[in-house]
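U., I forgot to send this yesterday:
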Amino acid sequence: MAAFAADRKGESSMSWSERQRRAIEARRKNLLVSAAAGSGKTAVLVERVIQRMLDVADPLDIDRLLVVTFTNAAALEMRERIAAALGKELSRQDLPPDRLERLERQLALLGSASISTIHSFCQSVVRQHFHQLNLDPRFRVASQAEADLLRRDVLEEVLEKRYAADDPAMFLLADCYGGERDDAELGVMIVELYEFSRSLPEPELWLKGCLDVFAPPEQASFDELPQAKLLLRQAQLRLGSLAVAAAELLELAELAGEKEVQLAQEYAAVIDELQAASTWSELERACRQGEKTAYTRLSGGKKDPAGQEARDAFKHGRDQLKKQLEKVYVLVDRPGEELLEDLRHCQPLMAALVAVTLEFASAFREAKASRNLLDFGDLEHFCLAVLRDGEGSSAAALDLQERFQEVMVDEYQDTNGVQEAILQCLCPAASGRLFLVGDVKQSIYRFRLAEPELFREKYESYPVLGEGYERIDLAQNFRSRANVLAGVNYLFRQLMEPQVAELAYGEAEFLRPGLPYPPCEGKSLEGPNELWLLEETGKEAAESEDDGAVEELPEGFAAEAALIARRLQKLQEEQVQVYDKGLGGYRPLAWRDVVVLLRSVRAKGPVLLEALREAGIPAYADVDEGYFREIEVEVLLAALAAVDNPRQDIPLAAFLRSPLVGCKAAELAEIRLAGAERSDLWDAVTVLADMETEAGRKAAHAVELLEGWRRLARRRGVPELLLRIYRDTGYYEYVGGLPGGALRQANLRALYDRARQFESTHYRGLFRFLRFVEDMREGGADMAVARILGEQENVVRVMTIHKSKGLEFPVVVVADAGKQFNLQDLKKPVLFHKTQGLGPQVIDVNTRYRYPGAARKAVAHCLELETKAEELRVLYVALTRAREKLILTGRLKHADKAAANWCRQSCRSEELLPPGLIAEAKGYLDWLGPALVRHQAAGDLRRLGGAPQEECLLPDESSWEIHICPPAAAESTGAAALPDDWFCLEKGQLLPGGEEAQTAACLEWQYPWQDAVGKAAKLSVTEIKRRFADVDESARAWPARSGAVYDRPLFLQAQQGPKGGEYGVWMHTVMQHLPLEGRLNEEQVQSVLEELVVKEVLLPEQAAALEASKIAAFLESALGSRLLASSQVRREVPFSVLLPAEEFYPEVAGQEETVFVQGVADLLFKEGDAWILVDYKSDRGLSPEELASRYRLQLELYARALGGILRQPVKECWLYSFALGKTILLEEAARGN
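Result:
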């Protein structure tokens, strides 16, 4: 098996370490087992359970134990392992009768033992005490999808009710924090605040307490508030890095000159003054004074060329220091008095937000109660309500305390506040019956509102609380080779710093090898850890100040993916051996032994899969999305949408074009043309269904299918409808015969299963199901494509770091280390923090200006540090998945600058890197680079950064290889991506395996269609006229009527009259809406203009600028009389047509290229069996002949295109000039139709 469950050790013939045995055998005290990665914590937990059952001196039945696991799978596995251990013990022949009886009793009790997740335990407590909670005993736990649907409906009702109440505070809240078009953003904020509060033991109390921050006493000083202390800490973190930079600048100045030294000393003095501030007020005054400092100016005259390099280095350092100092000034931008006013300014808005959130919580609770539903949060809170009685334990809690003699919790680092309160009710502090297992360094679920500080608080306090408490550190790793562990230790002893990373990495946290790898006869994976750095160039290397996009464009990742593929190929070519714990020996490396870990698989997973497959490496990406984009699923969803409402043209067209009906493109066009001009596609289908053509027969079949399915949908549910569609069309069997048929059929089964799950909720019906699917797609909650891959499949796994937790692989590639952290959540209008409360943006309602106030800055600072600490733990989890080989890859911009920066930041005698450096990192490379540049193997990296080779080294036993790939290698997807071939490129030689003739042919190759390069493939008729007609197109202003005002900016309104283009648009608008039931005189046309103003088609100023007489003159003309007599009139007719490109570009003649031409005809009316084309013109100062010459080409193209599309000739082309009040016939235009 490629991926082994983490921390497993075989129970048979187990030799426990001293600390493991202590964790197994310690009794009558609260124990915290801090179990590092690969330390066998699950095996220890299972062994403790077994020994508690079989203890000769103090045996304990298994139903007297409560074992809480993180997942249902972990609970099931633990039951299986306990059952296996009992079964093995029962198989012994020398068991005494009493022991045999006890073992059989434990095996019988195992089925009813409390080994479950915390939610399963809570559910059992709530079911036993439903009467105390006024719950219906038949309640059920809602699925996530059902809860989301109900939550959305309740939210809509609550918001509608608040708006209907005309609450000014609610309107102000929506105005400030709603979206630009609707209140969707406000709704999301309310739900997120509700969910966040539910992770705390007293959500309503916490919500109300959040408002205290925004009501400081009138005489309060900002320095007294906790926000001031947090902001001061944030500034001091940055100033710590600045002090180091100022010292380095002074060293550079000593090489540059006296004035440089003076300037460096001035900067150092300013930074010292800022660091000396002990309150916010002092820091604010020091910042304002620092901004006013008159620094020494460096003269720009002639200087000694010998010192120019030193001066340039000084200027660069000065600029960087100045930029960082400006960030401190921006942070400390306002005095405390103004920050206090900002807090008070936000109070009404935050009060309204808390009020509507509490109202939503109440309404949501009532909605769930009316449906007998609970969600997972309800289970926790109701369980806590049962176990609490005021400040103490309830009778139910006392009963459970009597029943459970020991409570064991696995993965304790991922517990939240509510779960901790439940555990405290079950095990009072002095009970000595709590056994907690976890590793705070692997707490990576803060996004699920886990609180690692609960573990950390016990980690620090248990050793000093006395005899009733004990902390046991399991640091011995039974998974990885010594060098992998040494590499992890080397990195994190520099990076895990308590102030930023929330914990220290000392001797107790060091990973120590516990699994002896035997010698290998062949080539093993033992060797240095690897770091591959690819330098980006061009657009990819453009400087960016963004805090990290949610998902970068994946194109730049292609070179890194190609390098990973080549590196894995090379491992296979070397025929390396991996150690198999199950076999107890070595075997050849298989693809299933390799995993590539990404922070996010969504965008870059497909790029990596493509690179691996191109290299001939089978691969599989574990992606929780893409299901709704699978073609077979899209076909079924289109069919369901057509069943729900066949008058939706796009789903109906997709249904007709799909294999369910099988219409070809030409047949689909025939169907559409069968309908009336303004009819929808369904009308056209029903019309053509009566015709005896191939398209008609398919249309009739489609109508028959849809009508039958619609009848079924009114009587039965969506699952039955899907089965009927599969049966009527044979689509399930059809997709089974396509490539990847098994996967496609699995996707269709998954759609049926999802529909069946949906129908089991209170939401039923086809319309609601389609709305549910649409909400999932819009909200990004896609489903994973059906998986048909087994664990033993010989493929490289590509997965996220979070999904790899609990697994181990012989070869681990941690890819995309250059990706920036995702800090988008910090840009939300209101931030939440469990201790700091709410952090809103301050909004000036009048000016719509928003800026961060003190509460916002304080909360953002806490969240950013917590995010960085979690990212550091995510990196730790990624690196500790490796058993034998660890490879890291990443892209960086400007390798020389990055290396120089790393060398400068890490050149210090202390082991820990500066806290400011750790806090301000934007990605993993910002940590890995400064840490590894101090390693003895980083000589190339230090040379690139211009640092002394022996300076600031941090000696270590770990072994590393650091490869710096130049731009040429990074851009290549072939063999040149590896260093072996670089010397060929450097010396101008041919690459290995190439032929001179082939190389010359490649270098001399010319694009065969060069003449078509730069030629537009899509043109409008207006653009064709502009490009190819040889006429003067100078714009001429239309004479204005007095008093007219137009909708251009004020500074343009000084010009007299509208532009010709504006006037023409208004005239075209009138002609489009002009009634054609009969002749209209000038007064009647003026009435039409006034009606268009009432309908808001025109502005009053626009209508006033138009001359009704010009429009009436057109209708009174002979051409107008013919128009009014016509039975078919079309206005503003869009068209598109493909024409030979050589008509517009003679140089591409003979190449069979086409140009897509599109335009809009102003007016078409039918006369007999042909069409009359009319185009309106507002040009001034041109004679009829000039107008005809100017627009002849345009009208010829119109007539040609429309004649071909309508399959009837355009016999006449006319212009109507509003300026001249005349109709102009273009006699030549109709030729060729």
